[in-house]
Amino acid sequence: MKWFISGAAALLLSACSPENQKVYAVDELVADDALLMKIIGACRNNPGELHDTPNCRNAEAADGRLRLERMGKALGG
């Protein structure tokens, strides 16, 4: 009986958890400008909730990498 109650509680709690989003790697975001801009826009629109999510951190890292690449090209590198 204890196992049944524990299992039912776990099932109910898992149903209430937020849906898992795909976490994009920095390289994936560097390669896809539209996806990068979409994620950065969402993160900057709601920084209180989304700032520490893996996608927001990876998007900021990808944006930083792209900025450095562009700066290097502009300086003749």
Low-confidence blocks of residues: none
The count of helical stretches stands at 5
Helix-strand string: HHHHH
Helix content: over 70%
Largest beta sheet, briefly?
Answer: none
| Mean pLDDT figure | 85
Radius of gyration: 19 Å
Set out the fold topology.
Layout: H1 2-16, H2 26-31, H3 33-45, H4 47-50, H5 54-74
Quickly describe the structure.
This protein is mostly helical and 77 residues long. The protein has five helices and no strands. It starts with a helix and ends with a helix.
Describe the structure.
This protein has 77 residues and is mainly alpha-helical. The protein has one domain (21-74). 77% of the residues lie in helices and 0% in strands. The protein has five helices and no strands. The chain has helices at 2-16, 26-31, 33-45, 47-50, 54-74. Helix 3 (33-45) crosses helix 5 (54-74). The chain is elongated, with a radius of gyration of 19 Å. The N and C termini lie far apart (69 Å).
Give the tags:
single chain; 77 residues; mainly alpha; 77% helix; 0% strand
